[in-house]
Amino acid sequence: MSEKINTYKLKNGMTVIGIQIPAVQSAAFEFLIPTGAAVMPDGCCGAPAVIEDWIFRGAGGKTSRELNDLMDGIGLHRGSSVDSKHITLAAAMQAEKLSKAIDIHADVILRPALEQQQFEYSKQLALQGVLSLDDDPRHKIMLLLRDHFYPDPLGRNTVGKKEDLENLNAEKCKQIVFDNFDMGDSVIAAAGKIDFEELCDQLEKLFGNEKPKIPKAVIHKRKDHVYHHYPYEGAQVHIGLMTNSVTAIDENYYNARIAVAVLSGGMSSRLFTEVREKRGLCYAVGASYHTLKEMAGIGCYAGTTPDKAQQTYDVILTEFKKLADGITKEELERAKIGLQSALIMQSESTISRAGAAADDYYRLGRVKSLDEIKQKIEETSVESVLSFLKNNPYEKFCSVTIGPTEIKV
Amino acid sequence: MFINMFFPLNAGLVNFSMIFKHKNLSNGLNIVGELNPDAQSTAVGFFVRTGSRDETDEINGVSHYLEHMLFKGTDKISAFDVNLRFDELGAQYNAQTSEENTIFYSATLPEQSYKAVELWCQMMRPALRDDDFNMEKNVILEEIAMYKDLPQFDVLENCRALHFGNHPCGKSVLGSADCIKALTSKQMRNYFESRYSPNNIVAAIAGNFDFEKTCGIIEQFCGSWQQKQADRKIEYFAGTAKKDSAQKKNLNCQHICLMSPSVSYQDRRSHAATLLAKIIGDDSGSRFFWELIDSAIAESASMHFEAMDGIGAFYSYIRASSQNGAKALQVTENIFKSLKTDKIKPEELQKAKNKVLSGITIKNEIPMGRLIELGVNWVYLGKYRPIEEEISLVNNVVLDDLYSLIDEFSLENFTKFSIGPE
């Protein structure tokens, strides 16, 4: 892949990453603002979900409608989300609109209007988001799983808690924006048809004078991994389980990724074959790697009708535990090519590439090139993966179910 | 016969160099290709013109079930080997079934695309073994159960059935659990024989590949397939405009689906219909957004246009708290009614165009995005539509086109289905 990666620090410490990809006509960027669920004061669970909506309701002297018209006027495709540590603002556009899109986002991030009436609407939307999560058990179980698996407050629910949201007010949220929108600790990654120098000049003018703040340390408390069941009169039992893995900075990171791919990469992987193909227990079953900066895990989901729930859980658990007994050379090769092809195909999308670069920088302090990742995947072997699994066995699981019946764990 | 068309595109928005190629095998199978030498991957798809609208009540759900069964292999390839071979290619692959299409697709690195084509060709003539059929029935029943726990899907499925009434487009794609339980492998084989005829299939390839080499593979594996009659009954139907609702005690929110008639895929106004849906119900800056989301009456509100074979519909989905459900519905109805008095402004149309056009740029950079356009256009229109033409069609829409739709299809005369708490 002929892409060029550049990194630059603005004078206040904000990081700019640029990935120039020839032969595309679009550009995309992702801002990471250190205002995630884990850094919220106690009693403010869900505040970032309110803030990510509120900041777009008027900014830089423009009303909410004027701001929206500006974004629609350049055909901006945008999205925002909240994770453990950040509010993420992402956008994709035709490349020539990049500079305008950055200007608009500077207003949204640095000069949001944060009006009282608009706050109430944002809060109501966040509250409805919590309610609607109950109607979506597949989504809800993954949030519950992370909440129970990761130490508090790292795995904190990003949608929010009803009682906390009800008690939030505009003043509290304004204070959170003031305390946490720290440009010195923010990252922007842009990918596509971009001119890196021009981008840095523009960002320096817009963001470089914002004084950095003192980053907050998050003290986290480990939890015991026990079983949690949430009664729900649905058609299926939704099963989630999660076990420890290593983070991206660990020397065994790629061995860990290969192990997950053998377990649940393509349709010939072990979980799909044993749970769905051989036994017909589920339609949806799969495991994937999930990471925070501090800690990582492998999360697994399966949805099945109540009479098959116990068997489904047992088969999944057996497959996790069996992995350390041995993997074949063929399984390793399939896992390698699967990961490498997915990497190249994802990098064709400017949105995915910008997102991956921002995540890399946050977790590693640098952006990995595609060649480096390919090389690291290639260096893994049956021996290295097994040695990793023997030293880091899948022994302890955090298990959560939502549905009409419980299971025995 | 090969047809080559070269399109150097520079419409001020995109700048792609795509080469289109087409070949029609003597048994009626169409092969269409769009070459982009800059692409990092190649996408391959088999588009079978069959779906739930082509089923009888007795075998409802068979198209989707058959889609699963193609992954169970052939007389020479086991189910496990199908999965194994795709994974050995590092392919991203899947399939989907709708009311009128069953689409099988994969993306691989360019050098692996020929093996992917070879595998798909073989899979298009499945063994349909009884053991596999019986095992997969469990998976289908689990999929039906899964969607029951997704009210956003459930409400749409119910609304479609209510809107289309006895018209074939009202048939469920998944089928009911009872119907699936009663379905036999013989019924599936009969359905397969009549619907997977080469003249009812389009093979499409997009990305970085050699067209002649690909055609050679397809001809080798598919050239001997016999043509069969694979007709579809096309009849326009404007919908029942009925209203109905259901309650479920485990739900928190009101899930509301509204459907109104619209133009078909083949209609020259289909791009106008896409833009009208964006103006009314895009997820930002639309009339739904300002009236429903901005004031937090609804948590989610969107509208989209679905263009189908000889028929079409506007779908709206609104999710609100149970207290706000009635109000959200009232506001939506007012938005539809006011289209005749609160005229659409030129700026609204221009914004919708900007969104659609930048969406085209982003989607078309990826071969998988192009593949679906390429295949679907051939299935519905029997022609290639280069990106340049797509852009012109969007740009050429004028306000009068939107009003002609609003006048002809009164949006306020909708079918409604809602699901909420007891």
User: Got a strand count of chain B?
Assistant: 12
Order of helices and strands of chain A: EEEHHEEHHHHHEHEEHHEEHHHHHE
- pLDDT averaged over residues of chain B: 94
Percent helix of chain A: 40-55%
Range of strand content of chain A:
15-25%
The gist of it:
The complex is a heterodimer of chains A (409) and B (422). Chain A contains 15 helices and eleven strands.
Structure write-up:
- The complex is a heterodimer of chains A (409) and B (422).
- Chain A is an alpha+beta fold.
- Chain A folds into two domains: 4-207, Cytochrome Bc1 Complex, Chain A, domain 1; 227-403, Cytochrome Bc1 Complex, Chain A, domain 1 (2-Layer Sandwich).
- Chain A has 15 helices and eleven strands.
- In chain A, the strands form two sheets. Chain A has a six-stranded mixed beta sheet with strand order 1-2-6-3-5-4, sandwiched between helices.
- In chain A, strand 4 and strand 5 (87-94) form a beta hairpin.
- In chain A, helix 9 crosses helix 15 (382-391) and helix 10 packs antiparallel against helix 11.
- The N and C termini of chain A lie far apart (46 Å).
- The relative contact order of chain A is 0.17.
- The model of chain A has no long low-confidence stretch (mean pLDDT 95).
- By secondary structure, chain B is an alpha+beta fold.
- Chain B has helices spanning 62-70, 79-88, 113-123, 130-148, 151-164, 177-182, 185-195, 211-222, 270-281, 287-293, 325-338, 346-364, 367-381, 387-395, 399-408; strands at residues 3-8, 17-24, 30-35, 42-48, 92-97, 102-108, 201-207, 243-248, 253-262, 300-308, 311-321, 415-421.
- In chain B, strand 1 and strand 2 form a beta hairpin.
- The N and C termini of chain B lie far apart (62 Å).
- At the A-B interface, helix 2, strand 5, helix 4, helix 10 and helix 12 of A face helix 2, helix 4, helix 10, strand 11 and helix 12 of B.
